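Retro notes (design track)

What went well: tokenization of the new backbones is finally stable.
What didn't: we kept losing track of which sequence belonged to which structure.
Fix going forward: every design gets posted as structure first, then sequence, in one message. First example under the new rule, 235 residues:
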């Protein structure tokens, strides 16, 4: 039987459903009974991560820890989280449970390193909180890779677009705007584009850009599938 994954989600809900759909698509299951059991806490009431990191709102750490404990109690063998920015509070989750937590940030960085031509610098599409916490910048720097990030008005445009996507706007206008943001960062010298926010792949795919596109949701879905079926061992 495949291992059971616990998904800490709801940040936002559509991104969590997207992760679940990708896990199902990547699964080699030939019948319902062969599939991966997913225990999902799709909780949209987790305090805003971006505001918490900016010291403008309450921390989500206690809520995330409680969600993790609940998933462990229900039988999860390991945990993942369908939000990049929330990994700033990863320590609270790890400390709350006795089962492994598999982080999205490190898996995404590993995918960039594994490209046929590993990039020396990457264009990072990520939320303000993720950027301010330095989650990807530190992880990439440890591998000798520089990050190009949205700044000033570009960062503000990304955040406005992010909250539109969270509100359900995934239409042509949102897709054009996300592509324009990616093209801007790529024009600064990025050799790959990192979807460092789970809302980004709701409006963008590899078909939209010429550079390699590393989708953090897809990367995490592949990791979940590999661990569940024993292709990879639990950390």
């Amino acid at each position: 039987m495949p291992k059971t994954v616990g998904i800490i989600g709801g940040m936002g809900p559509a991104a969590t459903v997207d992760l679940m759909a990708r896990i199902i698509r990547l699964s080699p299951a030939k019948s319902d009974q062969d599939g991966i059991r997913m225990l999902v806490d799709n909780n949209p009431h987790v305090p805003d991560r971006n505001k918490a990191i900016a010291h403008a709102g309450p921390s989500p750490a206690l809520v995330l820890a409680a969600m993790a404990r609940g998933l462990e109690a229900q039988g999860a063998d390991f945990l993942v989280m369908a939000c990049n920015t929330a990994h700033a509070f990863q320590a609270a989750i790890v400390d709350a449970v006795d089962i492994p937590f598999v982080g999205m940030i490190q898996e995404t960085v590993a995918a960039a390193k594994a490209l046929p031509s590993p990039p020396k610098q990457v264009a990072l599409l990520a939320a303000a909180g993720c950027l301010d916490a330095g989650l990807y910048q530190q992880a990439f720097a440890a591998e000798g890779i520089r990050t190009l990030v949205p700044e000033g008005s570009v960062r503000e445009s990304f955040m406005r677009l992010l909250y539109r996507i969270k509100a359900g706007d995934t239409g042509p206008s949102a897709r054009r705007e996300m592509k324009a943001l990616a093209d801007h960062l790529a024009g600064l010298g990025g050799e790959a584009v990192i979807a460092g926010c789970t809302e980004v792949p709701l409006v963008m795919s590899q078909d939209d850009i010429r550079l390699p596109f590393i989708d953090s949701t897809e990367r995490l879905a592949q990791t979940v599938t590999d661990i569940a079926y024993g292709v990879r061992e639990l950390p």
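Added context from the reviewer: The chain has a mean pLDDT of 97.
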